[in-house]
Amino acid sequence: MSDNNRFAQFKLVLLGESAVGKSSIVHRFVKNTFDNMRESTIGAAFLTQTITLPESNTTIKFEIWDTAGQERYKSLAPMYYRNANAALCVYDITSRSSFNKAQDWIKELKKQAPEGIVICLVGNKLDLENEREVDQQEVIEYVQELNQENDNVILSECSAKNGEGVLDIFNKIGRALPVEEVINGANNRSRQVGSRKPGVNLSRQQNQPQSSNCC
Q: What is the pTM of this model?
């Protein structure tokens, strides 16, 4: 394994109905905290966090946009998933309507998001398993159907309240992202910059027509 520092940065957006726990997932991931009284996000919130993939000795930095779930903010969502590398479509396992909404977000991403975006369908509130309305097997079959169409959809469940499964979500996404492509692209750009010789380029001046001295 190389001792060289390997680093890649990706934009990630969270989508889903209001009160499914998007902000709680992010704060559990970034700050390892949970607040029962967390207020609804207005517009969007921005946070960053890194993970390390030990098998490839790579650090991944996520630039995370946590969007508001209220319907009145829906028109703003394309601003945040435009140029995103990954998206979390979050639903509440105790709310059938929130799962339907997450499916709508996936449809929208397939139509309008960048090609190759990694989508993770996340069922939150595992700590309320006894109140589950969304059958896990149904979700598995739904994701399998999506992936038969060559989509890149990951499935995960978590509890932002107790932290179960939260880190696993971002590790799964990190392993699905085009890390090698990004690192190799950055290395190639670095080599190209380094290969440029310092000094003044005289070729253009030599090829310029000389000005006439006549009146």
A: 0.82
